[in-house]
């Protein structure tokens, strides 16, 4: 049930992203001929008012298509309502609308949480372990999901985001070095030794951590407090996401293993949904922001790649040659498909259920 819920959230976020492109185009009178969720052959499709809506076999994203790219289209190439014939500013709005839609959704979700569920009470001491990867350092040491880590080497971690950061820094700076951990498991206080794996000179333990929140909420004093709380959450998530992608670019060797594919994202979503509505909302906001930042990268097939071509067109004063655009997009599709398949295979092989079947 939690897996289905996580898949539903992912589908909703893709739908919101593509709806941003679609509405930005149609609201400006730009012709659209297709709206698809997923890639590959269509499982279901229906045509309404000249637009073919489709659900496709590979749920790795979606796309909005335009007559500009359809060789069979009978619309004249000089039609003013074709996307390619519109001013740069209008085309830029269509391209960026998906990213803006995901960012707006994340913010609205966080505001709604604060308005309807209240603001979280003050965090408790320590760090909560949300999930543990099988056969990684945390699992080997005896750390399990639900544990509350209070101290490292006899020093209290404190509470809140600062406690999480303190624990992460301790782990990162101790590859292969034993750390004495004091935790609460159920109602028992337990001491154990944790030895972070050496991940390119940086310690890694294979655990998902968060502030040790009590799970109780209080009503906001006023609407301003709701907005301020949502803004802080939103910009914290956005900043950490950007830093994560920056680390992937600047230090690929050390961070590549931390990249998650669709399977791992769904598994994480399923674990977060076990925490109830708060976990679902956190998952939705986090993945929505991730989709926005990912799509902003200047890579083929992504919105950032399209914006880069548009920027180059603005500098040149004329469109980029179609042959170059075609090569750029085709290479991007092969790269995206290959990377997705690689991550799916890797993440699936790491699932505890699969490892048990394989006898590991």
For the structure shown, list the relevant keywords.
single chain, 360 residues, alpha+beta, two-stranded antiparallel ribbon, 11 helices, 12 strands, 51% helix, disordered C terminus
Mean pLDDT: 81
| Low-confidence spans | 342-360
CATH superfamily caption of the domain at 122-214: PDZ domain
Major sheet size, sense and barrel closure: 6 strands, antiparallel
Tally the beta strands.
12
Can you put this structure into words, describing what you see?
With 360 residues, this protein is α+β, with helices and mostly antiparallel strands. The protein has a domain at 122-214: Pdz3 Domain (Roll). The protein is 51% helix and 19% strand. The protein contains 11 helices and 12 strands. Strands 4, 5, 6, 7, 8 and 11 form a 6-stranded antiparallel sheet that branches. Strands 1-2 form a two-stranded antiparallel sheet. A two-stranded antiparallel sheet has the order 3-12. Helix 1 (2-26) crosses helix 8 (277-296) and helix 2 packs across helix 5. The longest helix has 29 residues, at 88-116. The chain starts with a helix and ends with a helix. Mean pLDDT is 81; it is low at 342-360.
């Amino acid at each position: 049930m939690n897996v289905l819920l996580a898949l539903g959230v992912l589908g909703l976020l893709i739908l919101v992203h593509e709806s941003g492109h679609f509405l930005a185009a149609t609201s400006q009178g730009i012709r659209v001929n297709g709206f698809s969720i997923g890639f590959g052959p269509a499982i279901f499709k229906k045509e309404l008012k000249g637009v073919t809506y489709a659900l496709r076999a590979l749920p790795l994203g979606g796309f909005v298509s335009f007559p500009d790219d359809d060789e069979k289209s009978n619309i004249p190439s000089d039609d003013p309502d074709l996307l390619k014939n519109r001013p740069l500013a209008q085309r830029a709005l269509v391209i960026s609308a998906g990213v803006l839609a995901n960012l707006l959704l994340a913010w609205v979700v966080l505001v709604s949480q604060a308005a309807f569920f209240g603001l979280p009470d003050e965090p408790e001491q320590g760090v909560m372990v949300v999930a543990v990867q099988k056969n990684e350092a945390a699992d080997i040491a005896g750390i399990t999901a639900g544990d509350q880590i209070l101290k490292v080497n006899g020093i209290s971690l404190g509470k809140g985001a600062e406690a999480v950061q303190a624990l992460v820094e301790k782990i990162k700076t101790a590859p292969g070095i034993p750390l004495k951990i004091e935790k609460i498991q159920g109602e028992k206080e337990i001491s154990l030794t944790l030895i972070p794996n050496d991940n390119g000179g940086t310690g890694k333990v294979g655990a998902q951590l968060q502030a040790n929140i009590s799970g109780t909420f209080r009503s906001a004093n006023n609407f301003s407090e709701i907005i301020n709380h949502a803004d802080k959450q939103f910009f914290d998530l956005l900043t950490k996401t950007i830093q994560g992608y920056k680390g992937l670019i600047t230090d690929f060797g050390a961070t590549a293993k931390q990249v998650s594919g669709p399977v791992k994202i769904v598994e994480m979503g399923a674990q977060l949904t076990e925490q109830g509505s708060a976990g679902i909302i956190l998952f939705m906001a986090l993945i929505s922001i991730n989709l926005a930042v990912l799509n902003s990268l200047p890579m083929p097939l992504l919105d950032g790649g399209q914006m880069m071509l548009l920027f180059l067109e603005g500098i040149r004063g004329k469109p980029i040659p179609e042959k170059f655009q075609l090569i750029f997009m085709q290479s991007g599709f092969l790269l995206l498909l290959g990377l997705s398949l690689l991550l799916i295979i890797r993440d699936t092989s790491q699932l505890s259920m699969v490892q048990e079947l394989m006898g590991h």
